[in-house]
């Protein structure tokens, strides 16, 4: 099993490094290759109604539709990849990610319940009534270009995330939350920041970070018709 995971990670790393060149140019000599983590948590099991029941205890803060809060205090969870959610919740539970507000809720779940609530959340639609009224920006805007240059290698061309790297889906996320997390990552406030990402954030001007965050929020994961939880 372990060997299979290593092979999978190696193949993903090769594909990602190849992507730098297929685009016709080397993105930047300082563009980092991801430090690929191995997630010890394997996802399996049947889907049922348990996830929905468990999510009821999350809805007061994350909202019934998983849309979070636009002020950036509470993240949108709807449509996030199940694997990323499981990884985040397990890190909270075992103390390798420091986030006091979430700790009691993560600890209240058993390992099986983490799988089920994450499966439920991943299946919630990324598109909500509030996001539908926004205008989807052009794919060739300046912010889009900067996103492709600095972030897409790990988070996917449309911000859809990358399970192999445990890089979260970012499209449709509240820009205030994205910006806060970017600044927290630079300072490694939770103790689990991705070092490759922290390095790249250090070379991006604040104004560009704001534009990238606003672009990510506005593309709503619809630019290529991505469905909730998609990773390709
Ligand atoms: C009392 C309010 C509250 C409840 C209830 C709550 N959360 Fe949260 N959750 C938060 C806040 C606030 C954050 C963001 C904290 C921050 O970024 O500083 C968060 C963050 C998260 C994150 C992102 C963590 C990360 O590492 O990025 C996940 C995943 C999450 N919650 C899942 C859940 C699940 C699943 C439940 C129910 C079992 C739940 N939450 C219940 C308030 C809550
Ligand atoms: C080298 C790979 C890599 C690069 C490049 C990278 N990231 Fe990340 N990013 C990650 C990983 C892995 C995580 C998950 C670690 C964590 O939860 O802190 C992450 C987490 C995040 C988060 C937190 C999301 C959440 O739901 O918790 C945000 C926001 C983010 N990245 C934005 C960006 C932006 C914007 C860029 C480009 C300017 C970028 N990242 C570049 C790998 C990368």
UniProtKB/TrEMBL annotation:
Where are the annotated coiled coils located? none
- TM segments? none
What Gene3D superfamilies does this protein map onto? Answer: Cytochrome c-like domain
PROSITE patterns linked to this entry: CYTC
Q: Does the keyword S-adenosyl-L-methionine apply?
A: no
Q: Pfam families, from UniProt? A: Cytochrom_C (PF00034)
Which UniProt keywords are listed?
Electron transport, Heme, Iron, Metal-binding, Transport
Q: Which InterPro entries match?
A: Cyt_c-like_dom (IPR009056), Cyt_c-like_dom_sf (IPR036909), Cytochrome_c_Oxidase_Subunit (IPR050597)
Source superkingdom: Bacteria
Every copy of the Cytochrome c domain together lies at 46-125, 138-220
Q: What is this protein called?
A: Cytochrome c
């Amino acid at each position: 099993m372990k060997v299979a995971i290593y092979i999978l990670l190696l193949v993903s790393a090769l594909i990602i490094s190849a992507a730098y060149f297929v685009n016709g140019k080397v993105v930047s000599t300082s563009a980092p290759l991801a430090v690929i983590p191995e997630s010890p948590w394997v996802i399996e099991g049947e889907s049922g109604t348990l996830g929905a029941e468990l999510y009821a205890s999350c809805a007061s803060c994350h909202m019934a539709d998983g849309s979070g809060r636009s002020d950036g205090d509470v993240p949108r969870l709807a449509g996030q990849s199940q694997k990323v959610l499981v990884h985040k919740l397990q890190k909270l539970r075992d103390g390798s990610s420091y986030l006091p507000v979430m700790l009691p809720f993560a600890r209240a779940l058993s390992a099986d319940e983490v799988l089920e609530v994450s499966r439920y959340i991943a299946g919630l639609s990324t598109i909500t009534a509030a996001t539908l009224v926004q205008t989807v920006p052009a794919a060739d805007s300046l912010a889009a270009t900067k996103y492709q240059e600095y972030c897409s290698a790990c988070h996917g061309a449309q911000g859809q995330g990358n399970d192999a790297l445990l890089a979260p889906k970012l499209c449709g996320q509240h820009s205030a939350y994205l910006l806060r997390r970017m600044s927290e990552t630079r300072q490694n406030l939770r103790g689990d920041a991705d070092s490759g990402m922290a390095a790249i954030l250090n070379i991006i001007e604040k104004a560009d970070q704001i534009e990238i965050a606003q672009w990510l929020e506005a593309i709503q994961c619809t630019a290529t018709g991505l469905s909730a939880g998609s990773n390709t």
